[in-house]
Design a protein that fits this description.
314 residues, 8-stranded mixed sheet, 32% helix, globular
């Protein structure tokens, strides 16, 4: 009996080692016609991520600035495209007078000289604010962008009209708010249909279905986090033996580059399963070393917080 158990255990270890170590061949994968480069928040200032919670003011803990761009502004978006981004991620919030502005936080105090929630202020009031007011890298000793970003808050329609031939990933920060969903619908219907096809949404399932029923041209770039977690959990527990479920057909999945080492058969055997299911796969990369790790791998694209760093290497 002990010999049988030992034999089974050794066979399991050999199977696991094979599944992990045999990466497959790039020749087994289709050639990609497109490679998307998604710039999260355009060109922006990254921040220390230790001890973060939903109330943390990230503008007050940025790294020492290496550029003057402020996230979610026309300048930031333009710079991201110039650095090589094919898609720029932006955030939207509603105003008191039922407009959609491109802004990340629910409150104004962190980044601006305004007070209260975004939706408690009119568009006119928001456009008077200094968007760079709260940024500091030295615990408040200096505020390098104060007075330099007054009037930089823009509406979603202003951004879309400024870049009619560009792709955007719109992050709806209002969850299942039906009124906001309707504002997004009205904004998207105000642009040409061929431009609508360049819009991707990051939002709740309920809101996504509502918007897509009204604007069929839009789609998702990535599946919601909970479905991605379900996929990777099932794949890892299966030792990578199973095929990718057909429910992921045409869907987008992604992982930070540092987590790919936990994926059975990464990269080529894993990606073959993804592409056989007609799904898409993206990797999150932020440094030159990250980019070197995925260079030459036929991915659908990368997502980065540092397009200004990776741009010269693309």
């Amino acid at each position: 009996m002990k010999k049988l158990v030992l034999t089974i255990f050794v066979a399991f270890l050999l199977l696991a080692a094979f599944q992990y170590l045999y990466v497959g061949s790039s020749k087994d994968l289709p050639q990609k016609e497109t490679f998307e480069i998604i710039a999260h928040r355009g060109v922006h200032h990254d921040f220390y991520r230790n001890n973060l919670d939903n109330n943390t003011c990230t503008a007050s803990r940025i790294y020492r600035p290496t550029h003057s761009y402020i996230e979610n502004t026309i300048d930031s978006i333009q710079a991201a495209f110039e650095y090589g981004a094919t898609i720029v991620e932006i955030d939207v919030r509603p105003t008191k007078d039922k407009q959609l502005v491109v802004f990340h936080d629910h409150g104004l105090e962190c980044r601006t000289n305004g007070k209260g929630k975004v939706w408690d202020n009119s568009l006119t009031e928001l456009k008077k604010l200094d968007l760079g007011y709260g940024y500091t890298y030295d615990d408040g000793k200096t505020y390098p962008f104060r007075g330099k970003a007054i009037g930089k808050i823009k509406t979603l329609i202003e951004v879309l009209k400024q870049f009619p031939d560009k792709k955007f990933l719109i992050d709806n920060k209002s969850g299942n708010d039906q009124d906001v969903a309707q504002l997004i619908v009205e904004t998207l219907l105000a642009i040409p249909e061929d431009q609508q096809q360049n819009i991707y949404l990051w939002t709740s399932d309920e809101t996504y279905e509502y918007i897509r029923n009204a604007v069929p041209a839009i789609t998702r770039l990535l599946e919601p986090r909970h479905r991605q977690k379900d996929f990777f959990k099932a794949y890892i527990l299966s030792l990578g033996l199973g095929a990718v479920d057909n429910k992921y057909k045409t869907k987008g999945l992604g992982l930070p580059v540092e987590y790919t080492k936990y994926i059975w058969g990464w990269p080529y055997r894993f990606l073959k399963k993804i592409y056989d299911a007609e799904a898409r796969f993206y990797v999150f990369v932020n440094t030159e070393d990250d980019f070197k790790q995925i260079s030459g791998i036929p991915l659908d694209g990368i997502i980065t917080d540092h397009i200004e760093v990776l741009g010269p290497h693309l």
